[in-house]
Amino acid sequence: MDVFSRTFLPAAAEAGVAIPTVSRHLPVVRRCVESDETTVLVGRCLRPEAPLAGEFMLVLTHRRLVVTQETKVLHRLRLHLNANLRHLSNVTWSPAASRSALDIAATAVDGVRERFRMRLSNPDTVWHADGLLRQVFHGKQHALAA
User: Fold this and answer.
1) Which of 53, 55, 82, 140 could bridge 32 with an S-S bond, Cβ 3.0-4.6 Å?
2) Which domains occur in the chain, in start order?
């Protein structure tokens, strides 16, 4: 089993993503990441500005941000975002422990501002996800500055 598989499944379980959802999204995500990438964060999310767009699944590795979309009516899967972290700018996130949610926003290389809201199980999970994002994006900024 490769690094991605060994780290993706525990991250999905930690986020409370059901196995059928993981199984549906995994083939799309798999085409976007390398086998040696470590999964940092997995979570179901939605786009606040497009609530009827369906459910999304966000996968963050140390190198990529991949977001897949499942349409509401036909449950079709498609790739929504596949970005190398170096090509994202103005990455921000806002933890809201009182709502058990975490809003994430980033500007892609094409200039489109992407916004996602992760609904998490409890305030502790919100702070854990905040820490993981801080680790990935603050570490990236420090590596780029060096």
Assistant:
1) 82
2) 3-145 (2.30.29.30)
